[in-house]
Design brief:
With 255 residues, the protein is of the alpha+beta class. The protein folds into 2 domains: 102 residues, Four Helix Bundle (Hemerythrin (Met), subunit A) (Up-down Bundle), CATH 1.20.120; 115 residues, PH-domain like, CATH 2.30.29. Strands 4-3-2-1-7-6-5 form a 7-stranded antiparallel β-sheet. Strand 3 and strand 4 form a beta hairpin. The chain is elongated and about 125 Å long. The model has no long low-confidence stretch (mean pLDDT 94).
């Protein structure tokens, strides 16, 4: 505990408070800069998410759904064919396939006669239903990576011609889709660069706040220590005064 007088101690506390107050504008300015940097970083992060959402939507957009049966070798799988911007997707009971529209070389329409529950697990064996006349769409696919040609067969269609037209329409727009995807990719790269810049600015602003706080901290520690010392002295004096008063009272009663 400091041996200085109360006046000296209180004077030192006032000097420390003044030193802290002189540096307070620096702290507030640093904190404001940090808040602004965080706000900018959040805005740029949201911009990246928006672009990524638009890119995801481009890939997920559906221009038509058709109930069909996919012939996978000797197996049948009933499900739904969906036409997207870049892909023809089939989702069935047993699995799914994706066909790049750009890999479709030719179409051929045919006929099919399958039970209504063909390709449905269990039901296709115990309760297949009466075979019905429908159409089939045969797609010739050129697998560029594998260097070979495959055949995709979609049977039991009610609207095979419409499906073919829809696929042809989307193939004709592949250039537009590719251009839009390229544009979004460029925007994302720019947004990511801006986000990285904002993230770095936030780190620097945070470091500046820490530096200002580190400069102020010793003054606060010294001040708080002196205040604690003064409080302890005051409590000791009050305790001594109470003890002296109690002693005086006892001495008066003894006379």
């Amino acid at each position: 505990m400091s041996n200085g007088s109360d006046a000296e101690r209180l004077g030192e506390i006032n000097k420390l408070n003044q030193a802290i107050a002189e540096r307070e504008p620096l702290r507030r300015a640093a904190q404001a800069d940090l808040a602004s940097a965080k706000k900018t970083a959040t805005g740029r992060q949201n911009a990246v998410k928006i672009i990524e959402g638009q890119t995801a939507a481009l890939g997920a957009e559906v221009h038509g759904r058709y109930h069909t049966v996919y012939l996978n070798g000797k197996s049948l799988d009933r499900g739904t064919a969906q036409i997207g911007n870049e892909l023809l997707r089939f989702n069935g009971w047993y699995g799914h396939i994706e066909v790049l529209l750009s890999s479709i070389n030719s179409f051929e329409l045919g006929n099919s006669k399958l039970p209504p529950r063909a390709g449905v697990p269990f039901l296709d064996r115990v309760w297949p239903g009466t075979p019905r006349a429908a159409t089939t769409l045969l797609l010739t696919i050129h697998e560029k990576n594998e260097g070979r040609t495959n055949l995709v067969v979609l049977a039991d269609l009610n609207h095979s011609t419409e499906l073919q037209v829809k696929i042809e329409e989307r193939i004709a727009k592949l250039g537009e889709v590719a251009s839009r995807r390229s544009e979004l990719n460029s925007q994302r790269e720019e947004a990511l660069a801006a986000l990285a810049e904002a993230t770095e600015a936030t780190k620097q602003a945070s470091a500046h706040v820490a530096a200002v706080e580190a400069e102020i901290a010793p003054y606060q520690t010294q001040r708080d220590t002196l205040i604690k010392q003064q409080d302890q002295l005051n409590r000791l004096r009050e305790a001594k005064a109470r003890a002296d008063l109690e002693t005086a009272k006892k001495a008066g009663k003894g006379k």
